[in-house]
Design goal:
Length: about 425
């Protein structure tokens, strides 16, 4: 049976026979070896309790369809395994076991797989349907992300992966922009959690000297097919994904998958802030640490990585005023102008009558009022940003606050009217 699909590397249209040996074919556009999707699946067809609506896309793990679960009358994403995988019964069984394990994951940032089955010779997995756009498509259509937006997205993915690793010792092993979804509400959803593991274990070897799968985000140890992998291999892939998000390009590229893998193994990671000047050096160092060649040089767990992401998100810029002070001035700008004018008026008035600076008493009283004014400003600022570090003892004991010091100076008037 002949099928037409797009290459998941270069989007080139490919025509192939589903009976092709090994279920793989070389893309005429980029010359990568790609999986041939299962043929014969059309809208209206039913697989188990799921009615096919339309094809959502084709990837290294097969075709994904929008389907309707008839019994529940709800939309689902149905992933159908390619013929290259279904020919291996042991692999299919392991795949289904992994899918069942992935179905145990309950996290707001993970797309849940809730059913795995076989019908008419097709092996499929039903997952929650996410109405949104994946990061890879978002970059292609709108360009790179702003640094802060990218960091906040990656942080949510890291939290989800920490949950999967800490609670279930589950690796993803195929983290990439195409596997991270963004909803219109701004939620982040990680797809294929745990499902890619068996496919990679069995199929990540070379076919005619070419590696199967997407190599652009793959850690060096995964490329070497190291037996014992841990969460640090996913940290590397997430770092490569962050690199792509903030620069608009992949960290390493090349004409073939093998050439890209060779760069991951041997070449230093480009510094993102050297490629894009609007990327901070702190963010660049974070990416470099995540993509260190040796796992021991990366953050050692997800908690450590999340702490580093937070550090970059909350980095202080000494060249800017505190955000709280800027907000106070912005929201009270008319009052600031009026009160400053009145303050100047009072100062000029008292300097022209009895000479403000010749009267020790006036100087003392003015000094007290100025200090009182600064105290009030401090309270205004801290209360505005919701600080709990300073407590008004008069409020805590419910005692009445002392009356403000009398005096006609305009300084205390200026600060009092900022409230």
């Amino acid at each position: 049976m002949e099928v037409i699909f797009e290459c998941n590397y270069c989007d080139h249209e490919i025509t192939a026979d589903t009976q092709e040996p090994n279920g793989r074919i070389e893309c005429p556009g980029c010359h990568e070896i790609v999986l041939i999707p299962a043929g014969g699946i059309n809208p209206g067809m039913k697989l188990g309790d799921f009615r096919i609506e339309r094809c959502l896309g084709v990837g290294g793990m097969g075709e994904v369809f929008l389907a309707t679960q008839v019994a529940m009358d709800r939309p689902v994403a149905l992933k159908v395994l390619p013929p290259a995988v279904t020919g291996n019964k042991a692999l299919v069984e392991r795949f289904l076991q992994e899918a069942r394990m992935a179905g145990r994951l309950e996290h707001p940032n993970v797309v849940t797989a809730f059913y795995a089955g076989t019908d008419a010779g097709y092996h499929y997995i039903a997952m929650s349907y996410v109405n949104g756009i994946d990061i890879d498509t978002r970059i292609k259509h709108q360009g790179k992300f702003r640094e802060r937006d990218a960091l906040q997205i990656v942080r949510q993915v890291a939290v989800a992966l920490d949950y999967a690793w800490d609670k279930h010792q589950l690796l993803h092993r195929d983290i990439k922009p195409a596997n991270i979804m963004l909803t219109p509400e701004g939620d982040v959803k990680l797809m294929d959690m745990g499902i890619a593991k068996v496919i990679n274990e069995e199929s990540n070897l070379t076919v005619a000297g070419v590696m199967l799968g997407t190599p652009f985000y793959m850690s060096p140890e995964q490329a070497k097919n190291v037996d014992q992998l841990d969460c640090r291999t996913d940290i590397y892939a997430l770092g490569a994904t962050l690199f792509h998000m903030i620069t608009g390009r992949r960290p390493f590229d090349g004409p073939t998958a093998i050439s890209v893998v060779a760069k991951h193994l041997n070449e230093p990671v480009p510094m993102p802030h050297m490629i894009c000047p609007d990327v901070s050096s702190e963010c660049g160092k974070l990416v470099s640490g995540m993509m260190a060649k040796e796992p021991a040089q990366r953050p050692q767990n997800w908690i450590a990585l999340i702490a580093e992401i937070d550090k970059v998100l909350n980095k202080d810029n000494p060249n800017t005023l505190p955000t709280s002070l800027i907000t106070i001035l912005a929201f009270n700008f008319p009052k600031v102008i009026i009160c400053a004018t009145l303050s100047l008026y009072f100062l000029v008035k008292y300097s022209n009558t009895r000479s403000l600076f010749s009267s020790q008493k006036s100087i003392s009283k003015s000094g007290i009022d100025i200090l009182s004014g600064f105290k009030n400003l401090s309270k205004i600022r801290l209360n505005f940003i919701g600080s709990t570090s300073v407590i008004d003892k008069h409020q805590a004991t419910k005692e009445p606050a002392p009356e403000p010091l009398p005096g006609p100076t305009g300084i205390s008037f200026f600060f009092a009217h900022l409230i």
